[in-house]
TrEMBL record:
Alphabetical GO biological process terms: negative regulation of DNA-templated transcription
Species this protein is from: Lactobacillus kimbladii
Gene3D superfamilies registered for this protein in UniProt: Chorismate lyase-like, Winged helix-like DNA-binding domain superfamily/Winged helix DNA-binding domain
Protein name, as recorded: Transcriptional regulator
Domain called HTH gntR-type: residue spans: 6-74
Keyword DNA-binding assigned: yes
Length: 239
């Protein structure tokens, strides 16, 4: 079977996209004018325009009046709203290099909010875990997690800069099989803004997550603060 050749505009669009993804054309910068690109690729201006229009429609480029064509900041689609898997697994599946910076991990007394979400008595001991998570070396989410000490005291022995919390819980027969999530949109305060490398008061997605085991017992309560400028969320609703 003879392989069908791609149209010229598609070949050019693929090459432009590769330049965007490898940083040759960086985000929030203007690419060369159509006339210059048409000369470079040795094609007509309508063909060049068709290639650029394809990337505009796919969300990689944006035409700006009197400025030219801008490389847009491509958002990372987060699918955890309908999937239960580790952050590293989800990012790796998208071809994104994940990294975790462990900011804090120790035992504390649970606050009233944490007690309510983990169904614990007042001031019960919990492990508090704070992680800053990256995608391709860019900070995208700050996560604070609480786990009841009584249910898994061995948790303190793990290094959650490398270990997956969900995989660790599963080792102790505490697999998270269902989650309840609440979403708010808030402004980033100074500490969060500095960690996520955004301006103070920029919008962030603020997720509260209650992780439940097979017997419907809460084993995890997390507060995740996602950057609003580079994250989007897929909601899969079925009837």
């Amino acid at each position: 079977m003879v392989k069908k050749e791609l149209p010229k505009y598609q070949v050019i669009a693929n090459d432009l996209l590769n330049k965007i993804q490898t940083g040759i054309y960086a985000q929030n910068t203007i690419i060369p004018p159509e006339t210059e690109l048409a000369d470079k690729y040795q094609v007509s201006r309508p063909t060049m325009r068709q290639a650029i229009s394809l990337l505009v429609n796919q969300g990689y480029l944006e035409r700006r009046r009197k400025r030219g064509t801008l490389v847009k900041k491509v958002k990372i689609e987060q699918e955890f709203t309908h999937l239960i898997e580790s952050y590293s697994a989800e990012m790796s599946a998208k071809g994104i290099y994940p990294k975790t910076n462990l900011l804090y991990f120790d035992e504390e007394k649970a606050t009233p909010e944490v007690c309510k979400n983990l169904q614990l008595p007042e001031k019960a001991p919990v492990f508090k875990l704070v992680r800053l998570r990256y995608a391709n070396d860019q900070p995208i989410v700050l996560v604070t997690t609480y786990v009841p000490k009584q249910r898994i005291p061995e948790l303190i022995n793990y290094n959650f800069a490398q270990d997956s919390l969900y995989s660790t819980l599963e080792k102790y027969h505490l697999k998270v099989t269902r989650v309840i999530r609440k979403l708010e949109v808030m402004e980033a305060e100074e500490t969060t803004a500095n960690l996520l490398n955004i301006a103070v008061h920029k919008p962030i997605f603020y997720f509260h997550t209650q992780g439940l085991t097979r017997d419907e017992q809460p084993i995890e309560y997390s507060i995740a603060k996602y950057r609003g400028d580079i994250n989007s969320f897929i909601i899969d609703v079925q009837r």
